[in-house]
Amino acid sequence: MSSNVRGQRFVLGLYVALVSFAGLAGFLTGTFVSGLSPPRFLFLIPFPATPLGFAAYGALTIALVLGIPLVFVVVVSARIDDAASGR
């Protein structure tokens, strides 16, 4: 197994762990904090002020905030690898 594949798996695992942690944090916030107003994903989509609503909001927000730059890194690194190999 090449180090490139191990690196990709590590980054993907870290991404999944961070998104899961954000979902758990949202669930715990919705469970133990009272008087919260409903969150709005991307300022447009309302989520209910329940533990599951906050879990979904937290996980989706972190997935988007980390996912977009991660996609750019993957695309740029693939193009750099292609340019270096002469394709």
Automatic annotation (TrEMBL):
Keywords, ordered alphabetically: Membrane, Transmembrane, Transmembrane helix
Protein name: Cox cluster protein
Transmembrane spans: 12-34, 54-78
Protein species of origin: Haloferax marinum
InterPro entries the UniProt entry points to: DUF7520
